[in-house]
Amino acid sequence: MKIIFNADDFGYSKGVNLGIVEAYQNGLVRSTTIMAGMPGFEHAVGLSKQNPGLRIGVHLTLTAGRSVGGVYKTITDGDGLFIPLKELEKRMEHCELDMSEVEAEYEAQIRRVLAAGVKPDHFDSHHHTHNLPVVNDIFLWLAKKYRVRVRIYDKTLLTGEYAAVRSTSGFDDTFYGETTEEDDIKELVGRYSGDSLEVMCHPAYLDHALLETSSYNVKRVFELKTLTSRSMKAFFLEQGHELCSFSDL
């Protein structure tokens, strides 16, 4: 089975960036997704050029940091900072989100990544907001436009107009929080029997920015420890699983 350990949040901060690169150089990670509007973006771009084998996607964002496209009426505050996730979901539920703003911001983030010289091979999103109704249509339209692969919950959406958009046959987000030990990885891999699986992960070194701005902080260090374990690398070699990126699908 082809297995993609995708490290979310590349560009969040220097500590996150360095942890992801460590997980690539000495661990299971071959794929990451970059956040175009976060403070560590330029640092992440520089690291990507030093590590060309680390394949990069775009971690489209509507709920963290500052927008790339500027101030919007329904998805940011007056300073261009994104509204919190709960507020975004509330506005979505009450049909108070301007979807043209979502599309414009998603495209602005993609274009910033491209302008930095990074060619993305897939799209996903922070807090999985691309899976929200209507937003998922914008997300898939952009994936089709830019000819990239995707992380998507509902695989039935990859039909009709979006039949050419590809994803892994399986996706797992349980390597998180209290389930980040080696046995947790072995157990989750054993649950899948398809030809490909994406495992979401968040390896990082803890820095001040991560500690102060993310509720998921210290546990990322434990993820990094597991993802760079020698016994974990030996396990995948023994099992015959291929560690890869979305480019290899």
Description:
- By secondary structure, the chain is an alpha/beta fold.
- The chain has a single domain (2-248), classed as Glycoside hydrolase/deacetylase (TIM Barrel, Alpha-Beta Barrel), CATH 3.20.20.
- The protein has 9 helices and 8 strands.
- Strands 1, 2, 3, 4, 5, 6, 7 and 8 form an 8-stranded parallel β-sheet that branches.
- Helix 1 (14-25) runs parallel beside helix 2.
CATH architecture: Alpha-Beta Barrel
Low-confidence stretches: none
Number of strands: 8
C-alpha termini separation: 11 Å
Indicate how many domains the architecture comprises: 1
Average per-residue pLDDT, rounded, comes to 97
Helix tally? 9
CATH topology: TIM Barrel
Task: Provide the CATH top-level class.
Answer: Alpha Beta
| CATH superfamily descriptor | Glycoside hydrolase/deacetylase
A few lines on this structure:
This protein has 249 residues and is α/β, with parallel strands linked by helices. It has helices spanning 14-25, 41-50, 85-93, 99-115, 135-146, 182-190, 208-213, 218-227, 230-239; strands at residues 2-10, 31-34, 55-60, 122-125, 149-150, 170-172, 196-201, 242-243.
